Amino acid sequence: MEQTEGAAARLARRKPTIRDVAAQAGVSRGTVSRVINGGHWVSPEARAKVEQAIEATGYYANTHARSLATGRSDSVAFLLTEPQHLLFADPTFALLLRGAAEALAARHKTLVLLVAGTAEERENVAHFVGAGHVDGVLLISSHAQDPLLETLIATGIPTVACGIPLGHQGQIPTVSVDEAGSARTATEHLIAAGHRRIAMIAGPEDTPGGRFRVDGYRDAMSDRFDAALVERGDFSLESGAEAMERLLATDPSIDAVFAASDRMAAGAIATLRKAGRRVPQDVAVVGFDDSGFAESFDPPLTTMHQPFDEISAHMVRLLLDTVAGREPDSVTLPATLVRRASA
Less CB within 10 Å around the terminal CB: N or C of the chain? Predict the structure, then answer.
């Protein structure tokens, strides 16, 4: 007992090494090294033992020395190509950020948050990423003809996109929900409930969600599709309210609305209430995302649930595979209909 306590005391007085972690876990130093460098070719049991040993010994890697040896920074950029305020205003971005941070922490990698909503910010990000400060980029939002995305692709910086980047399909790995199929499901839910004048509030046309969700709505409406019943917003609450005003002016007989985000759905409901329309008795409303906001809204929103934690985890996995030189496949996940009081 005294010998064990003495060894622990000596370990506490010096910086723990990989050898100490290996001894604590009962595995080889090579196994410890593989866990620290991404966990490839290590069984879940061995990884768990190593992670417990790292915590018990207080070991941390000398990332500067390893960076010099490997040419890697062990950090990954979470890149949002939107105005800064949306990071806090749009709950979907916060959920993706949390999921990415957790997935990277489990692999002993660091997340670097980058926002590039202006031309100056895009230039700064391009220089920062191009200088090798991060090993790769998790691209959280993309717009057609975005010069920053074109720079990332042209310079060969490992990049994984959330959603299919318009104009660059097939050029980088992606993780996305089935945008068109999910929108079709939401619209078919309204059709099945007996609604006939079903409008849509779509997102920006230069975004994957803004384009492909309209495709799904159009498919579901089939020969009843009416382009006059589609208005666009920017995924914000305010734009949803304004789009609903335009829709009511176009056709006061609208009896249902599919909004391409929960925030636009909430804005639509505010406008409907101002116009004396009850939800769902007079007009049913379905949103998209289910980011937590939908459940607490009054009335709680029927919406398409995106699996944000899965999206983040797959993005991290694909990016680290790309950084390691492996050829990753893109991933498409299903979104599921969550029925609540708004429809």
Answer: N
